[in-house]
Amino acid sequence: xxxxxxxxxxxxxxxxxxxxxxxxxxxxxxxxxxxxxxxxxxxxxxxxxxxxxxxxxxxxxxxxxxxxxxxxxxxxxxxxxxxxxxxxxxxxxxxxxxxxxxxxxxxxxxxxxxxxxxxxxxxxxxxxxxxxxxxxxxxxxxxxxxxxxxxxxxxxxxxxxxxxxxxxxxxxxxxxxxxxxxxxxxxxxxxxxxxxxxxxxxxxxxxxxxxxxxxxxxxxxxxxxxxxxxxxxxxxxxxxxxxxxxxxxxxxxxxxxxxxxxxxxxxxxxxxxxxxxxxxxxxxxxxxxxxxxxxxxxxxxxxxxxxxxxxxxxxxxxxxxxxxxxxxxxxxxxxxxxxxxxxxxxxxxxxxxxxxxxxxxxxxxxxxxxxxxxxxxxxxxxxxxxxxxxxxxxxxxxxxxxxxxxxxxxxxxxxxxxxxxxxxxxxxxxxxxxxxxxxxxxxxxxxxx
Length: 449
Known about the structure:
The protein has a single domain (2-442), classed as Proton glutamate symport protein. The protein has helices at 2-21, 26-44, 53-78, 84-115, 138-144, 150-155, 159-179, 181-207, 209-224, 227-230, 233-258, 263-280, 283-297, 302-315, 318-335, 342-359, 365-376, 391-416, 422-427. The chain contains 19 helices and no strands. By secondary structure, it is mainly α.
């Protein structure tokens, strides 16, 4: 039976590869991998446990790319603001909105995850080599996350000090580049080149997701049975409820109180963005529609729209970097029997908010963000694999939240900069959108954005 389980696994892995060659969507292949893994695990039981090798390798590769990817993405994203004056005004408002709303989204994620008690009763014993970290005191959390030796912190996987260090570097590049551009150009070119290389490496790793999910789900079903997967339903409910709450309360509140605009009229005008984001599951694919919606229907100036919308498609991750990692963190904690305290929740929210600017704009940002958040909270990253099988369902809500948040941020920044045509918004006729339903000619950010 042991040999038969491996022969079956190899045949099915080849089948998953063939499905990819025949252009079956990534989400469908991940779902198929989950179903096939569960079937193999249920049939062969303990003889299939070693097939977890594929999942173990996949998780190790995810861990491998996080630090270099986060550092280069943060520096590259922030240094798109080349003028210190721009950084202080439009840039500060935009990035502040992105980070702040992501933190709020993470809070909603924590609330809904606890309402539905995601992961509770999941039939998984604590892994032998997992030890819950002792919760440090508040002052210790602050001092531990101030970077002292970035290289050592990179080697030990301490994400938040590395992110703070990267932000210092990015701000220094902007200031020095404004005075002497020739001093920073070689380093910026290196960072942009290295970022492109890391994006390519990330694509390689993300492409392995179906095989990793197959291995992990096979081992889980072999050890704990099929009933464990039925308990993923609350995760879907938690993600969608958190998305709705964030849309209505956070986005609606900003539109009503910060921009002083009728939220119902705003969401009606922004509907094309939400529809395209929900169906394409891609922030970059939604970008052309978002740009046209912001300028032609919301009536924000081209200057604000052309800055906020592309930046939002890259670093505004309310869904992928905020509410989703928070829900997964609670899920993993409940599965592994870890009691989360206020300090854990604070770390989860802070890590989600700060890391979102470094993990967005890459393939599979939700997985990378979740890895960062789980690592910061001292939770086992392997637990994330248990929800990857339903990722396609969750990603529709996540991406709609991301894209809508960018539209809202554009409006709020435009109002503060007096570049919003309020009369045109209230009384003008909405223009047709040339790119509606055509996601950037079929190109753009991969699924999972």
